[in-house]
Amino acid sequence: MLQTNYIRENKTLIIERLKKRNFDAETIISSIIELDDNRKKTQHELDALLAESNQLAKQIGELFKTGKATEANELKAKTTELKEQSNKLKEEQNSINEELLQLLYQVPNVPNEIVPAGKSDADNEIVFSEGEIPTLHDKAVPHWELAKQYDLIDFELGVKITGAGFPVYKGKGARLQRALISFFLDQAVENGYQEIIPPLMINEASGYGTGQLPDKEGQMYYMQADDLYMIPTAEVPITNLYRDVMLKESDLPIKNVGYTPCFRREAGSYGKDVRGLNRLHQFDKVEIVQIQHPDKSYETLDVMVNHVKNLLIKLELPYRVAKLCGGDLGFTSALTFDMEVYSAAQEKWLEVSSISNFETFQANRLKCRFKDNDGKTQLVHTLNGSALALPRILASLLENNQTPEGIKIPKALIPYTGFDMIN
RNA sequence: GGAGAAAUGGCAGAGCGGUCGAAUGCGGCAGUCUUGAAAACUGUUGUACCGCAAGGUACCGGGGGUUCGAAUCCCUCUUUCUCCGCCA
């Protein structure tokens, strides 16, 4: 959520930048400023009324104490009148605030100036790529075939006990999954991140804190009986650790990493690209989250991108980095880099990580601030990135490393798997 | 799940319906003293909104109510603690 003062002071810039998202902000921005003017005006009137009745209440108290009950009762009549007026204003104030908040919720984050304009992922800008695309042997097959052949993942069994999109990992498949999780966590910890195991369910306030609510309400699993949501990513509980928190400048940066299963309803995405591990309702992910000083957040974004690059290099996977265009940029993000690995049997690039700087957009909703060295209160910048999402990594590992003799495990993982070949 | 108690400033902890944004202690900050530090002493020390300012308003877990006036009374929700039951 943007700050109203920021909107006031940067109206034209915001409207211009939001065009990159194909979001026409002109009307809504004007309404926000108008409502905010209104809010100030009403607030002012209300304050004056309350000041007056506070005064009167004091006088009445004095009068009663000195035994002048008649005079006191006269004044009482006046306060009733004042109260009626101030109640009316309070109601007005509440509805203005509510309306203002609803409008603010609708405005996405302002894209960074280097975000390219564009409509969809087709307009994303590939900024970097590394690694060789493997040539597979004649009988190479996609990962879902391999998973079946070597009994690594059972999709049908998942359908039986839960439904589509909830695979069952077995034997070496399960072990490989656990190996990846440990590897990713260890790499993050080595780079100074604190390991966190957060709750897998969140309340409504947390959903609003990081911006999943109200924007993506239908994408989260919701448990009505307890009014809780299953997390769609560890970003939500880990960033919300800092909701309503006042930090010191010396606390920054805060670096946390967490492994969690993630739950996504994926409502509306049927048919395409959903085979095998490509799109699941439940999947595992290691997420890195940083809370940083506003002056340093873009530097940090680069560091995080490099962290993920290194993971992919160690896994020996060909990858590329895409700078998301305005049309593909998440609602809360100011700048996002997607990391994609090449899945050789499917012959396509799969998104395995998304690394974003949210600037103050989340911090404003979260009320996560810090006292700077001059004693002034400022909003922090929040960032996060997958490091990494497991299923598509697994898919490309299986596909790219298949040989007629079996599937080779990359060196970096062998200490974690305990085997170097699936056969 | 049942019964009871509680929730106050960074922390601890007072608070009779009006003089309470809130005693006191600790902590923090500034100063005096000291070669320096400690101790002692003095002062200062919450957040948000409106306002150029003076100042005003709101906030004592959240929401609602009673009252001219609520930290204080009532209702409700949440959380914590104690006891009982169940349980990985």
Write a structural description.
The chain has 423 residues and is α+β, with helices and mostly antiparallel strands. It folds into two domains: 4-106, Helix Hairpins; 121-422, BirA Bifunctional Protein, domain 2. The chain contains 13 helices and 19 strands. The strands form five sheets. An eight-stranded mixed beta sheet has the order 1-11-12-13-16-10-9-4. Helix 3 (26-65) runs antiparallel to helix 4 (69-106) and helix 5 crosses helix 12. It binds one RNA strand of 88 nucleotides through helix 3 and helix 4.
Keywords:
RNA-binding; about 425 residues; 3-stranded antiparallel β-sheet; elongated; 8-stranded mixed β-sheet; single chain; 13 helices; about 40% helix; Helix Hairpins; alpha+beta; BirA Bifunctional Protein, domain 2; 2 domains
Which structural class do you get from the secondary structure elements?
alpha+beta
Please indicate the percent range of residues in DSSP E strands (runs of 2 or more). Answer: 15-25%
* Domain tally: 2
**Poorly predicted spans:** none
The profile of the biggest β sheet is: 8 strands, mixed
CATH architecture assignment of the largest domain: 2-Layer Sandwich
Summarize the structure.
It contains 13 helices and 19 strands. With 423 residues, the protein is an alpha+beta fold.
Question: What does the secondary structure layout of this molecule look like, with pairings?
Answer:
Layout lengths: L3 H6 L1 H8 L7 H40 L3 H38 L18 E6 L12 H7 L3 E2 H7 L6 E2 L1 H20 L3 E3 L4 E2 L1 H7 L11 E2 L4 E3 L4 H6 L4 E4 L5 E10 L18 E11 L4 H18 L4 E5 L11 E9 L4 E10 L3 H6 L1 E4 L5 E3 L1 E9 H11 L1 E2 L2 E3 L5 H4 L3 E2 L1
Parallel strand pairs: 4-9, 8-14
Antiparallel strand pairs: 1-11, 2-3, 5-7, 6-7, 9-10, 10-16, 11-12, 12-13, 13-16, 14-15, 17-18, 18-19
Helix pairs in contact: 3-4, 5-12
The protein binds one RNA strand of 88 nucleotides through helix 3 and helix 4.
